[in-house]
Amino acid sequence: MQWALFFYECGIPFNVASSRQFQIAIEASCQYGSGYKPPSPYELREPLLRDCVKETKELRKQHEVAWKEYGCTLMSDGWSDRRGRHLINLIVNSPEGTYFLESVDASSECQDAHMIADLLEKRIDDVGRNYVVQVVTDNGANYKAAGKILMDRIPTLHWSPCACHCLDLMMEDIGKLKAFKKPIARGRRVTTFIYRHGRILSLMRKATGGLDLVRPAATRFATSFLALKSLVKHKQALRSLFTSQQWVGNKLAKTAAGLNVQDIVLSAEWWHAVEDCLRASGPLLRVLRLADGDEVPAISKMTALMRFAKEKINQGFPQQNKEPLLKMVMDIVDKRWETQMDHPLYGAALYLNPGKFFPIKDSGDDALVGELRGCFNDVLAKTVLDVEIRNKIDAQYVLYEARRGTFANVMAIQNMDKRNPLDWWSSYGGRAIDLQRFSKRIIHTKKRNHLQHRILNDNVFVSYNRKNLDRFQKRHEKIGDKSYDPLVIEDFDWGTEWVDPTMPPPEGAQGCPDDIDWEAVDEAVGASSSLQGRNLPRAATMGRGPSNVNVHYQRQRKRSAPSTTFLDDYDLEDD
Question: So what's the pLDDT on residue 456?
Answer without folding.
Answer: 42
